[in-house]
Amino acid sequence: MIRALYTSATGMQAQETNLDVIANNMANVNTTGFKRSRADFQDLIYQYLIEPGSPTSQSTISPSGVQVGLGVKTVAVQKIFEQGDLIATSNQLDLAIEGDGFFEVLLPDGNSAYSRAGNLQLDQDGQIVTPDGYPINPSITIPQDAISISVGEDGTISVRLPGQQASSQVGQITGVRFANNAGLRAIGRNLFEETASSGSPITGNFAENGFGRVQQGFLESSNVSIVDQVVGMITGQRAYEASSKGIQAAEDMLTQAINLKR
Fold it and tell me: Could you state, in order of their start, the residue ranges of all structural domains in the chain?
């Protein structure tokens, strides 16, 4: 009965983590380029009261034994990098990646971060930056007198200047890929950092060699499904309730055992 108390407690703790993950997913349902997370669980070690295959007589053995599990633990919370829907905005500097790849962003400390959010803007010098003011890498500056900006599927940026009929190229946004996107470290602000698990960044041109295509005038929406998250929340809540009932049942049995002599 004591074992049941602690086993049920691990179930409640696991579902707390599960609901934390679901709550964060639902909070970011309208966050540009957001990738939902999923909690993965794993059963804990077992106590073998009777070993499988142990002899039950001179000529027979136990076919399964008696194996009592000790609960559950959270083994991983991973990002699911499924493509989000593309939402048309008609904004010249709204860019969506259709397929694999990230934009590279230069942080104030000189390190690089990576993002799927293409809601880009211009700073006071005409440099293309994120909403936090972090420049994309490689740096691209738009002339202040540019009439229009066009971005090709390969990330090539061209502008049309006053008095010119043809557009002139001012730079190209390059893409970055990783062997294991789920191994990236999420640091907030729609940014990810490289880790040992993600592998080293692979740089290339969009629309080539497996990289996705850049779509101008679109934003990639969050890949969170409200219906799926609500179902997961209900399931997690009921699992939490069931584990709490296990603690209550074990406590009732302990109470009855203690009161046997009364």
Answer: 2-81+225-261, 86-220
